[in-house]
Amino acid sequence: MTRLSQASLAALPGSVAAPRYDRAAVRPGVVHFGPGAFHRAHQAAAFDTLLAQDPRWGLTGVSLHSRGVADALNPQDGLYTLARLDAETDYRVIGAIGRVLTRDDPAAILAALVHADTRIVSATVTEKGYCLAAYGTLDFASPAIAADLEAARSGDWTPSSFTGWLVRGLQGRRLAGLPGVTVLCCDNLSDNGRKLEAATLALAEAVDPETARWIADHAAFPNAMVDSITPATDDALRSRVAAAIGQEDAWPIQRERFTQWVIEDRFAGERPALDVAGVTFTGDVRPFETAKLRLLNGAHSSLAYIGLGRGLETVAEAMADRELAAFAERLMREDIAPSVSAPAGLDLQACISDILARFANPAIRHLLSQIAWDGSQKLPYRLLDTVRAALAAGRPVARLALPIAAWLRFLAAAAREGRPITDPLSGPLLQRAEDWRAVLAMREVFGELGADPRFVGAVEAGLAGLAAGRLDPACVH
Predict the structure, then answer these.
(1) 103 close to 95: Cβ distance less than 8 angstroms
(2) 6-282 belongs to CATH 1.10.8.60
(3) Which of 112, 227, 345, 366 is the most buried (most CB within 10 A)?
């Protein structure tokens, strides 16, 4: 079967959408770190729409930890297929990515960052990729940050971390007399632009104080919120895509039809006209961000850890479990929604109904095990901030503590069975997993909550309920 490429685009069937612009005329205006499934399903698709009107916003991908995306996409001239899953699945070939660079060619990464056409540096490197400590500040004890500090002493240095590359690239732009850029975080971190700005300035101050001052004056770090359920690619998707496009695609992507991208209107220079792709620009992202992180992501993690404990595999299966689905709905409506200040025009109860319907979409095979990755990095933003808000308001936290209890049982089971977990704190977590109080005492995850008797008591009650093979009867219909 012919491999998808620029040369094979003309052979696509009419039912498959192809780039509606001259790819040869595209100039790369964005350098994106972490061109994994979510970015290619979401932000790259938005820029692909924009390129039909403005060819100055092409993407250069940078993959720091794996050659997989580069090896899949570069032989395909950056092209890949996006499958949108709904009652009917449609297929679209995305052409926004010109090439994918890897850490094997640091000179090319630096050249992309220090290029006159580059106006945005964006990232989807997951929560752990920012090397942040518990309170969202730069973790100078992180091995990658420590390595960057050591390398920077040489002057001409090759960073290890994404934050290090930001500092190195901005340092290069300063020295070359180029303008600053907009740095756009697209990961599920609350107040993500401000956290990334503070982390970047902290590392720059340690490496080159003059560059730190230049960054403060010339770069912008807008907050942003992104939302679209994106299951991992599997062989079944590859087979469906091959049948649909009549060609081989080494790494197609799938997502639900729903997508949302909200960006703070705070740019260092020109703002791309992503409105044409449905992007919302606003003066304050935080209400959108809080609603999404707490309602959708918080419920997602809850379904993942409780569902895995009940022997379930996917989100749709979890929603087919009537007791678990009822728990998730009450959690969202009665425990999470009171902590959310809805942005203007957003009906929270209607939003919750929409999210529940998205979770139940039978066309989406979203693995609970995938959502369960990196719990130590996700739970502080997805659930623990909501716990803090509830405690401060004097509201009960029994339901909110139950998914935390399920995570603790998930860790204990992995430790007993000798199974690895995907988490940057996997070592310390698994060492403590048989003693749940010792896990709660990890301030890098729980902060002060691990010593709050109201929270600890609620977790203990949740553990007892789960051990008995049921959800807490006080928490379900």
Answers:
(1) no
(2) no
(3) 366
Q: Where in the chain is the domain with CATH 1.10.1040.10?
A: 286-475
- Report pLDDT for 135: 75
Q: Where in the chain is the domain with CATH 3.40.50.720?
A: 6-282
Q: How many CB atoms lie within 10 A of CB 65?
A: 12
Task: Give the separation between CA 152 and CA 439, rounded to whole angstroms.
Answer: 35
For residue 120, list its beta bridge partners: 30, 182
Strand, coil or helix: 121:
strand
pLDDT, position 470: 83
CA 149 to chain centre: 26
Question: Fold for domain 286-475?
Answer: N-(1-d-carboxylethyl)-l-norvaline Dehydrogenase; domain 2 (1.10.1040)
Which H or E run includes 97?
strand 97-102
CA distance 201 to 216: 7
pTM: 0.86
CA distance 17 to 179: 36
Residues paired with 63 in a beta bridge: 102
- Residue 136, phi-psi category: left (phi > 0), alpha (psi -120 to 50), beta (remainder): left
CA distance 360 to 367: 13
Listed residue (74, 62, 170, 143) closest to 106, CA to CA: 62
pLDDT single digits (tens) 16-72: 999 999 999 999 999 999 999 999 999 999 999 999 999 999 999 999 999 999 999
